[in-house]
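Possible race condition, two jobs.
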Amino acid sequence: MRVDLAGLAVGTELPELVPPPVTRAMLALYAGASGDHNPIHIDSDAAVAAGLEDVIAHGMLSMAFLGRMLTARVPVEDLVSFRVTFRAPTPVHARPRCTARVVSVDPPADGSDGPRTARLDLTVRLEDGPVTVRGEAVVRLRDTGAVPAPPH
């Protein structure tokens, strides 16, 4: 579902993405796809030996969930930047919830008549649990005429 970019304003929240619960099969498939076969993601004994209760999800899997949330709503060519920091592990069986909120709508950095951009705060929080990922994305707003200029 694409977002009406003309309607983005500070405080707007994109529709939440609730991916399926993290499973061992999901982690094995992600390890194969990403090439990240770190044992803490796929081997319970190795995870316990590392001081964990069980395997944990790859941090980049959570980033991938955020990327899916963004590109389902904003054309990928309008994703200017996307970065995250990992705050807490995501255990197997966790239920992540991905959110994005507009924190600024800005004119073109070069002063041109080009499209404005919106800066989004991104969060992955476990259902009934901690924030595991925080991030930021900047998206291009192609329909510049419908987005009011921010106060200066």
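Job #2 (started ~2 s after job #1):
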Amino acid sequence: MTARVVTLDLDGVTDKAGLMDRCARDLRLPDWFGRNWDALADVLSDPGLWSGEQRAEETVVVVRHWDRYAEARPDEWATAREVFAQASALTVALALGGSS
């Protein structure tokens, strides 16, 4: 099985709106993405968005530079982690090792 790796880079993200915008951009979410927690959960669990001719059999999202957002908005980050953990159409991994 070939995995497709996508990077979600949260460098400079300081709030939920920024997180949603970065998800839309980096994950190339559809225009109808609602930029709220429920919409993010729905899109990350929609296998139709993550499969197809040009997609790999499995999609892995690597979240980088998340630590500053987590410190600035711990409650929002907890919700984001919950949404990522429940994503059923792909695998989400947090990159460790600081902000490099």
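The two ends are 29 Å apart (CA to CA).
Logs attached separately.
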